[in-house]
Amino acid sequence: MTHLKTGDKAPNFNSKDEHGHPVLLADFKGRKLVLYFYPADDTPTCTVEACNLRDNYEVLKKQGFHLLGVSPDSATKHRNFIKKHSLPFPLLMDEDHAIINAYGVWGPKVLFGREYDGLLRTTFIINEHGIIEKVIDKVESKRHAEQILEV
Predict the structure, then answer these.
(1) Whose CB has fewer CB within 10 Å in the chain, the N or C terminal residue?
(2) Does position 45 have pLDDT exceeding 90, yes or no?
(3) Looking at the whole model, is its pTM more than 0.90?
(4) Which of the following is catalytic: 46, 50, 53, 125?
């Protein structure tokens, strides 16, 4: 589970999106950012989550939110995922886990009774000043946008 909490300064990050364009936390100064971490492109739960955000993207935008998804997948996987599901927001590559580790979202998980370490589905809502306004660590994929709008 993440060590970050509401009121903490969001850790800086420097990554690239699915097209190789650089993306930094500083790019969002003065804007609200939804930074959502998900385990893998094109898996059932991650697809439901991404499509829920896609379907509610205009509502989130009207509320001033910018969305970034983060997973350890490659640019190619991200591009395919975006194309297949018509996602209107960028996905950041984090193959070296730099952002994942900075946000503390790698840890123990259980799947079918088997314990292993993996990415913990978590969302951070970061305000215009780079401060974490909310941490959603119990993401409900089918209603993720609603959880974000409850801020």
Answers:
(1) N
(2) yes
(3) yes
(4) 46
* Domains of the chain by start residue, with CATH: 29-149 (3.40.30.10)
Q: Is 8 exposed, middle or buried (0-12, 13-18, 19+ CB in 10 A)?
A: middle
Torsion of CA 80, 84, 89, 94, to 10 degrees: -30
Distance CA 19, CA 115 (A): 34
Strands (DSSP E) found in the chain: 14-17, 22-24, 32-37, 65-71, 91-93, 106-111, 114-119, 122-126, 132-136
Q: Please give the Cα distance from 51 to 12 (Å, whole number).
A: 27
Is 51 in the active site? no
Of 53, 26, 23, 59, residue with least CA distance to 38: 53
